[in-house]
Each structure stands twice: as structure tokens, then as C-alpha cells.
Specification:
The protein is mainly α and 86 residues long. It contains 3 helices and no strands. It has 2 domains: 1-52; 56-86. Helix content is 88%, strand content 0%.
């Protein structure tokens, strides 16, 4: 048999084999891409936490923002209470 006859025989047995293989490869590539994206997001979140607690500039800015929010939450209700009731 020639190569063409072998190919025709293989296609006559399963005409969708090539499409199935291409679709399966596409699904696997998409799955790997989503998994890699998840690892990247987790790495970014972990590094953000480590940088926010560190002694560098970002750590100082993060600490300042935290303290600003705490003081804002303590002072504003008192000011609103004084403004409305007094």
C-alpha cells in the first residue's frame, strides 16, 4: 500500500481523528495557560504581602496608609456626632 492508501484507510476508520487531536491540544494549552495565570496571581499576592511588611519605601507607605485609615475611622464618627447633635 502507498502512503495515500494508508491515510485513506486511517481516515475511513475515524474521520474526526485529526480534528479531535487538534481540539484536545487546544484544550490542554488553555488549561496550562489558566494554571500558569493562577500561579502568577498567587505569587504576586504573596510578594505584595512581603513587600508591604518590609522596611522599604513601599512598606512605609503601606504602614502610613494603614494608620491613616485607622485614625480616620476613629475621628470621623466623633466629628459627625459633634456636628449633628451639638
Amino acid at each position: 500500500m502507498s502512503n495515500l492508501e494508508d491515510r485513506k484507510l486511517a481516515l475511513s476508520e475515524n474521520p474526526y481523528a485529526e480534528k479531535y487531536a487538534a481540539a484536545r491540544a487546544s484544550i490542554e494549552a488553555e488549561k496550562r495557560s489558566k494554571e500558569a495565570s493562577g500561579y502568577a496571581w498567587m505569587s504576586a499576592a504573596m510578594n505584595y504581602g512581603a513587600a508591604a511588611e518590609g522596611p522599604g519605601r513601599f512598606g512605609k507607605i503601606s504602614s502610613g496608609a494603614k494608620w491613616f485609615c485607622i485614625w480616620f475611622a476613629m475621628i470621623v464618627p466623633n466629628l459627625l456626632f459633634i456636628r449633628v447633635l451639638l
